[in-house]
Design brief:
It contains 14 helices and three strands. The protein is mostly helical. The protein starts with a strand and ends with a helix.
C-alpha cells in the first residue's frame, strides 16, 4: 500500500501527520517521539557546543590567570607591604602610597600624562588624513601603504630609536645638514620635543589602523547625500565623518595613550633622562632602589588611573552597533 501525506500540522506538545492510502482512506500518525528526539538532539548539541567552547577557551583562561591575574595580584599585595621588604608575610600598610604623595612622584606621573596626551593629539592630526586616504581614496594602493607602515613593527623599538640617535646626535646626519645650512645646532637629542617625536614615530601604527577601520565604517552614500544637499567639505567632515568614525578615534586614542603612559625607551634613549617618567620611577624602584613595595605601589597607581580612564572612554562606544555597522558595510 502506497501512502502519500495529506496534510501536516503541529499542535504542541503533540504533533501528527495525516497519511492517505491508495484506497483513499486517511490515518493519523503521531510524530511526537520524532519531535522529542529532535529536541533532545538539539539540546545535546547545544550542551556539546557549550562544553566544546569552554574546553577551547581553557588554555587562554589558564594563560591569562597565570600570566596576568596572578602577577597583578602579587603587585597589588606587595604595594601594601612595608618599604624595602621582600616578603608578603608582613603587616599591610599604606606607607608606600604616603611616600608617593610626599616625595614628588606625582610630578613624574603628571609629566607622563602630559607626554601621552601630546602624543595622542599629534597622532590624531597626523594620522586622520592618511587614514581617510587609506579608507576612501586609495584603492589598490591602500594595501601597499598598509604593508609599508606595518613593516616598521617588524623591527625592535629600541633598534629604531638608536637609529634616530645616530641621525640626531652631536656630529650626526642632521647636525651636519644644519651646519651646511648655517645653523649651529650641536645635538637634537635630550629634550622634550625629541621624546614626543620618538613616541609619535613608534606608536603611529597603533593610531592609524583603528582610524582607518573607523573611517571605513562611514557609509559613502551618506557623504554623497550630504554633498548633494549642499553641504561643504568642512560640514561633511564635522557632522558625518568625525561622529561616525568616533569608535576608531576612541580606540586608537586609548591604545596610544596607554602605551605612551607606560613608555620608557623614548625618554631614556632620545631624552637622556631629561624627563623622568613614571615608568622610569617604577624601574628604578624595582632595580637600583631595591624597594619592591614602592615600585608596586607606583605600578598599582598607574594601573588604576589607566583602568579608570580607559573604562570611562570605552563606555562611550556601542561596540555591538559598531560591529553591526561593519557587517552591514561588508559586501
Amino acid at each position: 500500500m502506497s501512502e502519500a501525506p495529506a496534510s501536516a500540522f503541529a499542535s504542541p506538545p503533540h504533533a501528527r501527520v495525516l497519511l492517505r492510502d491508495a484506497s483513499g482512506g486517511v490515518r493519523v500518525v503521531w510524530i511526537e517521539p520524532a519531535i522529542e528526539a529532535v529536541r533532545q538532539q538539539s539540546a545535546f548539541g547545544e550542551i556539546s557546543s557549550r562544553a566544546f567552547g569552554m574546553a577551547s577557551s581553557f588554555p587562554f583562561l589558564a594563560l591569562m590567570l597565570a600570566g596576568f591575574v596572578v602577577p597583578l595580584l602579587c603587585v597589588c599585595a606587595f604595594s601594601l607591604m612595608p618599604p624595602r621588604t621582600f616578603s608578603l608575610a608582613q603587616i599591610p600598610t599604606l606607607a608606600n602610597y604616603r611616600i608617593i604623595f610626599e616625595q614628588g612622584y606625582l610630578l613624574s606621573l603628571s609629566k607622563s600624562v602630559a607626554l601621552a596626551l601630546a602624543t595622542v593629539g599629534i597622532l590624531l592630526v597626523v594620522c586622520y588624513p592618511l587614514a581617510f586616504a587609506l579608507a576612501k581614496v586609495f584603492r589598490s594602493g591602500a594595501a601597499l601603504v598598509t604593508y609599508a607602515i606595518a613593516s616598521s613593527l617588524f623591527v625592535s623599538e629600541n633598534i629604531r630609536l638608536f637609529g634616530w640617535v645616530i641621525g640626531l646626535m652631536k656630529g650626526g646626519v642632521l647636525a651636519g645638514i644644519s651646519r651646511q645650512l648655517g645653523l649651529e645646532v650641536e645635538s637634537w637629542l635630550y629634550n622634550v620635543p625629541v621624546i614626543i617625536f620618538g613616541m609619535v614615530y613608534v606608536y603611529l601604527p597603533f593610531m592609524l589602523f583603528p582610524l582607518a577601520l573607523g573611517l571605513q565604517m562611514v557609509p559613502e552614500q551618506v557623504r554623497e547625500a550630504a554633498f548633494d544637499l549642499g553641504a561643504s567639505r568642512w560640514q561633511v567632515f564635522r557632522m558625518i565623518d568625525v561622529p561616525l568614525s568616533m569608535p576608531g578615534i576612541v580606540i586608537g586614542s586609548v591604545l596610544v595613550f596607554v602605551l605612551s603612559l607606560g613608555a620608557i625607551a623614548e625618554a631614556k634613549i632620545l631624552g637622556g633622562q631629561k624627563v623622568v617618567t613614571i615608568a622610569a620611577e617604577i624601574e628604578t624602584a624595582f632595580t637600583f632602589g631595591q624597594n619592591w613595595p614602592l615600585g608596586s605601589a607606583l605600578a598599582t597607581m598607574l594601573i588604576g588611573i589607566t583602568a579608570v580612564l580607559v573604562f570611562a572612554l570605552l563606555r562611550k562606544i556601542d561596540f555591538e552597533r559598531f560591529l553591526g555597522r561593519r557587517l552591514e558595510a561588508e559586501p
